[in-house]
Specification:
The chain has 108 residues and is of the alpha/beta class. It is 35% helix and 23% strand. The strands form two sheets. A three-stranded parallel sheet has the order 1-2-3. It has a two-stranded parallel sheet with strand order 4-5. Strand 1 (2-3), helix 1 and strand 2 form a beta-alpha-beta unit.
């Protein structure tokens, strides 16, 4: 699962490694970028969800959640809900890849 898939660099890397990918981005142009660049064989393993973090309620189980540079863009007052969504969707032996800008979350 990729949160904030943007131009698809991480999405394509995960597809190349054999993952089924749910790519999530609030910008609908991200889906168009992915569709223009993806191979037909990878298209069957890619799902796109046009959504903001704040509107996500329940997510499917995932072995890897890649939130690289996206978490700091979640509104600080919505972060607890987002974090619970992350914890609940990662499979028991799964992983989270994320970068945090600590100062951003300290400014409540």
């Amino acid at each position: 699962m990729i949160w904030g898939c943007g131009n698809g660099i991480d999405t394509f890397a995960m597809l190349e490694k054999g993952f089924d990918v749910l790519a999530i981005d609030k910008d609908s142009n991200a889906q168009l970028l992915l569709q223009k660049q993806i191979s037909p064989k990878d298209m069957v393993r890619l799902n796109f969800q046009n959504s903001s973090f704040e509107s996500l309620d329940e997510l499917p189980s995932a072995d890897l959640v890649n939130a690289s540079f996206s978490l700091p863009f979640c509104h600080p007052h919505q972060f607890e809900k987002l974090w619970l969504n992350i914890i609940n969707c990662i499979s028991p032996k799964g992983f989270l890849w994320a970068l945090f800008w600590i100062k951003r979350f300290m400014e409540f």
